[in-house]
Amino acid sequence: MSEVLVVIDHAEGEVKKPTYELLTIARRLGEPSAVFFGPPDQGDAVAEKVRKYGAAKVYVVDDAQIKGFLVAPKAEALQQLAEKTSPAAVLLPSTFENKEVAGRLAIKLGSGLITDAVDVADGGVTTQSVFAGNYTVQAKVTTGTPIITVKPNSAAPEESEGAGAVEAFAATISDAAKTAQIVATQPRQSTGRPELTEAAIVVSGGRGTGGDFAPVEGFADSLGAAVGASRAAVDSGWMPHAFQVGQTGKTVSPQLYVANGISGAIQHRAGMQTSKTIVAVNKDPEAPIFELVDFGVVGDLHAVLPAATEKVKER
Ligand code: FAD
């Protein structure tokens, strides 16, 4: 069975959930091999985690020559690994960085590229939502090694024992790949909530909050969810732009999306309509968001959300 390379998404060796989702998807295409960019002394601990989701091998790529630079060295290392292993596909979590890595890798390998897939079925047929969510497209790479970036929450991680054999991979990074150096990085202030694009549950608020996000945040916290916002809420200065969901904000695809006081404009839908289950709270029964939802509550969010929060806390 051919290998499928899965690039591990991690922060200081802490493996993030999208990696397990990708390993689950990779098993539909071949035998997953995880690729860890990081310090070699973290390799064994990472291998122990990804092995439980079916990783037969774990390639440890020492990131000493890679982490201080923007994406080019990573693409070069992956090219060398792909040339050595001839994988059936290369899967990466859909982050801004990985999408650029994937683009460069596709050019280097002369391969087709699909970004932002929300599903990858047997045979490598992907599903994507395109043109601000107006079309759902099924696509397949027909040239070279399929390079596919997959959005978080595209699959439920399923455990499966893999050998997790650690193999050091020594990539040769050219000077040409080291032309853009990272000078400083500033860690984002933690909200204590999950990252918006990775969260399994997102609770969002719009203009209907009237600027009072407390009920939205309270409900989000009761569910362990991330908080999102419509552009109207962001433009009003109620929430920072980092919270905006939509065409000009972030794209989310959680298991559950709860839209509160949001009308459901096409530009907002573009960022959330691939969510698995959608719930809306809106006082207008004619609000367009109700065309999209699995469950809808017609009511004032300032009454509905505190009551719902109480119910969740009682559980
Ligand atoms: P509104 O459309 O004003 O809706 C508010 C809703 O709240 C109404 O349905 C109302 O019935 C309901 N409501 C009011 N009070 C309550 C209450 N007490 N309880 C319950 N419900 C209540 N928008 C985005 O969100 N994200 C984007 O990325 C984005 N990008 C854009 C890009 C472009 C180029 C353009 C032109 C627009 C973009 N927009 C985007 C804006 C988008 O068109 C809408 O204007 C915006 O989404 C509206 O936000 P809203 O639903 O919060 O506000």
Provide an overview of this structure:
- The protein is α/β, with parallel strands linked by helices.
- A seven-stranded parallel beta sheet has the order 7-11-6-1-4-5-12, with helices on both faces. Strands 14-13-15-16-17 form a five-stranded parallel beta sheet.
- α5 runs parallel beside α8.
- The termini are far apart.
- The mean pLDDT is 95.
- The chain binds flavin-adenine dinucleotide.
- The site of flavin-adenine dinucleotide has 28 residues, from α6, α7, β16 and α8.
Which descriptors would you attach to this protein?
315 residues; alpha/beta; five-stranded parallel sheet; 24% strand; binds flavin-adenine dinucleotide
Offer a concise description of the structure.
This protein is an alpha/beta fold and 315 residues long. It has helices at 17-26, 43-51, 72-85, 96-109, 214-223, 231-235, 266-269, 301-314, and strands at 3-7, 10-11, 14-15, 31-38, 57-62, 89-93, 113-117, 119-120, 126-130, 135-139, 147-150, 165-168, 201-205, 226-229, 256-260, 277-282, 295-298.
